[in-house]
């Protein structure tokens, strides 16, 4: 049972991290080239674009909230205090 939990957590982490990175890269593209990849790929389904943005935001919150436990550097920093 614990292994399953770990597996689920790992999968969630990968999905959330990837989504957050997609959002960050998309923002970078918008800033650099005025090119919105998400809009270009999914622009024909405006509802879906919105869902992706919301998922990216939720993923960022998830990654940020779990970062202290996932990241060696931050984990060490926090435990030193
Ligand atoms: Zn960190």
TrEMBL record:
<keyword id="KW-0472">Membrane</keyword>
<keyword id="KW-1133">Transmembrane helix</keyword>
<dbReference type="InterPro" id="IPR007211">
    <property type="entry name" value="DUF378"/>
</dbReference>
<keyword id="KW-0812">Transmembrane</keyword>
<feature type="transmembrane region" description="Helical">
    <location>
        <begin position="12"/>
        <end position="33"/>
    </location>
</feature>
<protein>
    <recommendedName>
        <fullName>DUF378 domain-containing protein</fullName>
    </recommendedName>
</protein>
<dbReference type="Pfam" id="PF04070">
    <property type="entry name" value="DUF378"/>
</dbReference>
<feature type="transmembrane region" description="Helical">
    <location>
        <begin position="45"/>
        <end position="65"/>
    </location>
</feature>
